[in-house]
Every structure is written in structure tokens, then in C-alpha cells.
């Protein structure tokens, strides 16, 4: 349950970050940040569906999905859907761009690193307690 709550929060923050970047930046910086965040969102959705998933598996699924969508843009299918449905255009994009594949990898790797760090137990140093005897 706790993992799903964190995943929901992460999904919200990822969408907010994507919209924020598009609001304040333009050009390649905004585009490629959006590409990385697209894969981060897919990663978070994988964790939301399967909370016990290992980071490397979630990263592989997110990367695979993102790349599959990008490669589908080489077909006429995605373009036809995007022309008729705003949601399809937002989720599937419209045109193939090879550098997007690199930024999908960046998003998947960063997501897996953050997820791995969050799964590690927190260790705290414990100091020995000194007993003092009254003299």
C-alpha cells in the first residue's frame, strides 16, 4: 500500500514537472526533458501496477514501452490516431526522432536509481551506552 501511495505521488510530480518544464522552457531542452519524463511516468505506472517489481525490471518495461511507441511512429498508425484524437497525440506522439530513444534510456536509468535508493533500508549508527557506576 505504501509503495502505491509513493507511486501515485511520483506520477503526480512527474506530470507536474513535465508541464512545468514545457511552461518555462522551449526548444530541445524542453523536448528531451519531456522525453525522459515520459519514460519516468511509464516507470512509475509500472510500479503502481506491480509494487513489488524490481527496479531493473520496471526500467526495462518502461524503456521497452517508450521505444515501442517511438518505433510505431515510423508507421502510419500512430499518425492516423494522433490526427483524430488529442489523447493519442499526447501519449503516442506524432513523428519519429532517433535521439528520443537516448532520453528514454536516461529516464529509465534515473528512475531505477531513485527506486533502488528508496528501497534500501535506512541504517543508523548506534552508539554504545556507557554505564557509570557511582563512586
Sum this structure up briefly.
The chain has 6 helices and no strands. The chain is mainly alpha-helical. The chain has one domain (2-119).
Structural class by SSE content:
mainly alpha
- The overall pLDDT, averaged over residues, is 89
Provide the low-confidence segments as ranges.
none
Main pleated-sheet profile: none
Rg on CA atoms, Å: 20 Å
Specify the overall morphology. Answer: elongated
Helix percent reads over 70%
Sketch the topology as an H/E string, one letter per element. Answer: HHHHHH
Task: Give the termini distance in whole angstroms.
Answer: 54 Å
Beta strand %: under 5%
Record field, number of beta strands = 0
Our count of domains comes out at 1
Q: Helix tally?
A: 6
Transmembrane segments: 36-53, 60-81, 101-118
Keywords: Membrane, Transmembrane, Transmembrane helix
Pfam families: DUF2809 (PF10990)
Organism: Streptomyces polyrhachis
Topology:
Layout: H1 2-24, H2 27-49, H3 55-72, H4 76-84, H5 86-92, H6 99-119
Helix pairs in contact: 1-2, 2-3, 2-6, 3-6, 4-5
Organism: Streptomyces polyrhachis
Protein name: DUF2809 domain-containing protein
Transmembrane segments: 36-53, 60-81, 101-118
Description:
It is a single chain. The protein is mainly alpha-helical and 135 residues long. The protein has one domain (2-119). The protein is 75% helix and 0% strand. The protein is built from six helices and no strands. Helix 1 (2-24) runs antiparallel to helix 2, helix 2 (27-49) packs across helix 3 (55-72) and helix 3 packs antiparallel against helix 6 (99-119). Keywords: Membrane, Transmembrane, Transmembrane helix. This is DUF2809 domain-containing protein. Pfam families: DUF2809. The chain crosses the membrane at residues 36-53, 60-81, 101-118.
